[in-house]
Amino acid sequence: MPTEDTVMAGLNCGTVSSLAWPVLRDGCDAAVTVSDAEALRASKDLDALGVSSGPCGAAPLAGVRAALHDARRRAELDLPEDAVVVLLSTEGVTA
Fold first, then answer.
1. End-to-end CA distance of the chain
2. Which of 8, 39, 57, 69 sits between 20 and 30 A of 47, alpha carbons compared?
3. What whole-number distance in Å separates Cα of residue 53 and Cα of residue 45?
4. Secondary-structure percent of the chain, ordered helix, strand, coil, rounded to 5
5. Contacts of 66 (CB under 8 A, 6+ apart)
6. Neighbouring C-beta atoms of residue 16, cutoff 10 Å
7. Furthest-apart CA pair in the chain: how many Å?
8. Number of neighbouring beta carbons within 10 Å of residue 56
């Protein structure tokens, strides 16, 4: 399936994996999309903290920001104040 251009090339998939989708679908409580600008901003912010992360790797940070910054979305997630959110960066900065 055709896809759009994005700086998050590693996340640019036109077809969902038939093996992975049932596990992801059944294990997710929420999903959010992030723009290239949001992923690039997260990558720069991580770099400022000494974390090497390209746009794909920084997408989880951008997603958490998108989900928690909006009061309605945050309320829908119903996270307790002491919630621990783990972000996995799967890509370092590339050339």
1. 27
2. 69
3. 10
4. 50, 0, 50
5. 32, 33, 34, 38, 73
6. 11
7. 41
8. 21
